[in-house]
Write a structure and sequence with these properties.
Blueprint (H helix, E strand, L loop, with lengths): L7 E5 L2 H4 L27 H5 L3 H9 L14 H15 L3 E5 L2 H4 L10 H16 L3 E7 L5 H7 L6 H17 L5 E5 L9 H5 L11 H26 L4 E7 L3 E3 L4 H23 L4 H9 L10 H7 L4 E5 L4 E3 L7 E3 L4 E3 L15 H15 L3 E5 L17 H19 L4 E7 L19 E3 L11 E3 L1 H11 L7
Parallel strand pairs: 1-2, 1-12, 2-3, 3-4, 4-5, 5-7, 6-8, 7-11, 11-12
Antiparallel strand pairs: 9-10, 13-14
Amino acid sequence: MSFPEGFLWGGATAANQIEGAWNVDGKGWSVDDVATYKPNVDVRDYKSHVTISSTAIKQAMEDLDDTYYPKRRGIDFFHHYKEDLALLAEMGFKVFRLSIAWTRLFPTGEEKEPNPAGLAFYDSVFQEMKRLHIEPLVTLSHYEMPLALSLNYNGWTDRRVIDCFLRFCRTCFSHYGKYVKYWLNFNEVDSILRHSFITAGIIPELCGEKGEIACCYQALHHQFVAAGLTTKLCHEMIPGSEIGCMLTKLTTYPRTCAPEDVAVTQQKNLKNVFYSDVMVFGEYPRLILKNLENRGISIEMEPGDLKIIKEGTVDFVSFSYYMSMTESADPNAERTPGNTVLGVRNPYLSSSEWGWQVDPVGLRISLIELYDRYKKPLFVVENGIGAKDVVEPDGSIHDPYRIDYFRRHFQEMKKAVEAGVELMGYTSWAPIDLISASTSQMSKRYGFIYVDQDDLGRGTLKRIKKDSFYWYQKVIRTNGADLS
C-alpha cells in the first residue's frame, strides 16, 4: 500500500536554526539570538540549556561573537538557500516547512512598516521554491519573537504583543499569499510551560508576585486570541488558504496498570491536548478551567476574547512526534528526557544518545487518537532522530540507524491511514543538519544532508548527501510504497 494520492512528503526547519545572517540587512535581535551552547552541561539536562535571566540576555547582547550563540549563524541558509532547495528538490520534496523570522521583517516588532530587505529575501526563497515545484508550509511563530518585545513587555504576557503579531501576519499574508497556501500559527504552542522564554519571550524574574506559571497562562491566552484573529485574517486575505495549529504530541502510557498510574497518565495526556482543543473546538476545556481555578490561577480576558477564539478555529491539526513516555504515581520511578520533557523510562523501548525513547507504534497511536478526537485532517510536521554521524575517508556517510528509524515510523503511519486517518502529509525534522533547538548543538544531527560545521561553528559548510538521502528519495518517488 502507498499513501494517498497527493500526499505531501517533505521536511521541516525553523529560521532560527538554519538561516544565520542574524545581523544582516537590518534584521533585529530575536529571543534565540541569545540562546547559548553550553558544552559543559549534560545534553540530557534540557532545563539548564533553556534557563534565561536578564543578566544572561545583557551579556549575550554585549557579546557579538557567535561562537557560543550558534543560532545566530545557523547553517547559513540565508546565503545557501538555492543550493539547499535544489537538494530538497532532488529528493523529490512536495512540501518544505519553514518559518519566516519575525525580526527579519520587523526588527523590534513595533515598526509600522516592514523591512524591505527582509521582504525581498523571502520573496526570493518562495520564488525559488515555486520554480522547483515545492509547496511551502510556513510557520508564523517558531521561537523567533523579537527580543525587544521580550525586554519591553515581558513577551506575550502583555496584550499589546497581539497587535504587533497581527501586523507581522498581515504582512506575510499580503506579500506571500500568492506563494503560500498552507500556514501554521504557533510552533509547539504547548511548549510555553517548558521553555517560556523562547516560546513566548517571558523572562521569569519579570513576572513578579504572579510567578512564571501564571504569566505563562496569561501569555497563552493572548496567543489563543492571536491565533483566532490570524485564522480569520488568513482566510480573508488568501482565498483557499488553510491554517493549522501545531502541538508537541507527548503520548504517555501508564507505567503499570495500577489505577494510580492510569490516573496520573490520564491527567498528563489531557493537559497535552488542551492547547489543540482550544484551537480546534474554539473553547477552553472545562476540566482545564477548573484545574486553573483550583491552583489559584486566573486569566485576564477582555470582552469578545472567547468569541474570537470560537470563530477562529483551525482547518487542520499538525504535530511533532519524536518519542513517547510513561507516567507513574511513584515519585522514585526512573525518569528519562524527551523533547524538552521528562517522563518515566519505558523498559520496552530503546533510546537515542540524548535519552529520547524510540516508539514507532506510538506514532500510529497518536494519529488515531488525534483523528478520533478532532475529526480534522492531520499533518505530521516534525519527526526524526538526533544522532552523531561519521564522514568516511571517501566522503560518504552511512546512517542505517536513521533509515531504520524512519522506515519503522512510516510503516506505522501506513497502518493509521489504513485505519481511516486523514493524513495530509509528513515533514521530517530535519531534512538538513541544523542547530538543535534545545541544546544549540550542531553535533546532534537530524538531516538527510550533512553540513560540515561543528558545535563551535568551525567547518566549510559543505553539504554532503547521506545514505538516507537516497533512501528518502525512493520513498517519495514511490509515495511510500517502497520502504526497503
